Amino acid sequence: MGQQQKGQGGSISSKDELGKIKDQKLIRLDAYVKGKWVSATGNKRFEVTDPGTHQTLGHVADMDAHDVSKAVDAASDAFGEWSKITAKERASLLRKWYDLIVANTDDLARLLTLECGKPFTEAAGEVDYGASYIEWFAEEAKRVNGDVLPTTNNNSRMVVLKQPVGVVGVVTPYNFPSAMITRKVSAALAAGCTVVIRPACETPFSALALCELAERAGIPPGVFNVVPCSKENTPEVGKELTTNPKVRKVSFTGSTNVGKLLMSQASSTMKKISMELGGNAPFIVFEDASIHEAAEQLLFCKFRNSGQTCVCANRIYVHDKVYDEFVSVFTSLVKEKLCIGHGLAPSTNFGPMITNHGLAKTEEHLQRAVKAGAKVVVGGNRANIEAGGDFFEPTVLVNVNNDVPMTCEETFSPLCPIYRFSSEEDVVRCANNVSVGLAGYFFSRDVGRIIRVAESLEVGVVGVNTGSIESEVAPFGGVKQSGVGREGSRYGIDDYLNIKYLNVVF
């Protein structure tokens, strides 16, 4: 297949790297319920490993449905008091939590790299990005405004109140173990809700470290609860959060299939839901685009976190007139700028796959595309890194068939297929010809085309002449089967509030 990428890693010891964390109290192995660090029933634990070395990081409390029920009870008991303190007080506590996260960025980033695999610089960027949501919602807590409606009766007033929904079950994925928690939890706490968080079984350390800092910030017992669990216990824990009547809302980020299951379960008690689900983002390069700018942006947009992001470019469409030039420029960038290795090795900017399942899916999608006629021009193999771990080369393909899984499904991997197109109408049709619609990107200098294509793409977020779209001030979420609701921005707190109408006659 294509040229193998340079790699590095050396002899990395995951335990030694854990020992380099300055504040060792950030390394927590127990669950956190009602302000106390607790073990699971029967003291059961599950193993967490470094995907870059396959070495064990620790054994974390393996909570089951009974344990989670206790956490929900704690959150329910704490809700009454937490929801009644002033927004200014909640904002102050959130700000303290934000300040502690910023002060401990290096330690949090090292933990994140060890459990998730992403390069240290990228991990530090995630910690900072995640903290930005806490800062934002600390300020938004004081802006949850109601309304007084006009009435024709001088002896009455019509008032609209916004009140917190109650206990929120938060279920987060392994690819952003810090930011996905802060994005959800900061909005929930700002609104006056309490939370029970189930982090991904692959990456519980970041959640528990954030919990340690929330405790130091003074967030009261029962308001912030974390219940890690193994892959085996995940279905029953998820079902407890979605069916327990004391949980009034579920916020989930993950695959569309799991989201549908949780949504179905939550319907039994008519909970509010927020679902940020799978994507299959098109990345379109029109003939009038800046080729080098588009290629540079694609390098980031496709290969950040080794392609394991829900908004990464999955299908790259390039106009016939500039196709060969773009492929040449882009493949040169991939060869020159990406260095595979353990995330804590010097100059690494491309880490491992996080799960064995993800690696197997990557190889299957690649094999089926090649069998159908695709040609690999860069990469195409597992990378042999001295540190060990599940590494797959950044891979660029051309001549990809539209009917292969790589085109039709979210790959969630460093596979980068590049397709040709000849007209705006055809490429928009191809871009929209999927069941999901989270993010989309395109590059053009034609103002009319920018408006037409941006309005035509069936996605919730559009990047125009950029591959970077995330910000705490912007609403994030998808359409079609990419989910329900929005996170971040002034709209993000709405999903944690109920609207109550009062008709006051006097």
Care to describe what's here?
The chain is α/β, with parallel strands linked by helices and about 500 residues long. It has 15 helices and 22 strands. Strands 14-15-16-13-12-18-19 form a 7-stranded mixed beta sheet, with helices on both faces. Helix 13 (about 405-410) links the parallel strand 15 (about 395-400) and strand 16. It is globular and about 75 Å long. Keywords: Oxidoreductase. Pathway: Amino-acid degradation; 4-aminobutanoate degradation. It catalyses: succinate semialdehyde + NADP(+) + H2O = succinate + NADPH + 2 H(+); succinate semialdehyde + NAD(+) + H2O = succinate + NADH + 2 H(+).
Annotation field: number of helices: 15
Q: What's the rounded overall pLDDT mean?
A: 96
Largest sheet: 7 strands, mixed
Radius of gyration over all CA atoms, rounded = 23 Å
Task: Count all strands and give the number.
Answer: 22
Unreliable residue runs: 1-5
Characterize the quaternary organization of these chains.
single chain
Helical proportion, percent range: 25-40%
What is the structural class? alpha/beta
Shape annotation = globular
Q: Strand order across the biggest sheet?
A: 14-15-16-13-12-18-19
- End-to-end gap: 80 Å
Strand content: 15-25%
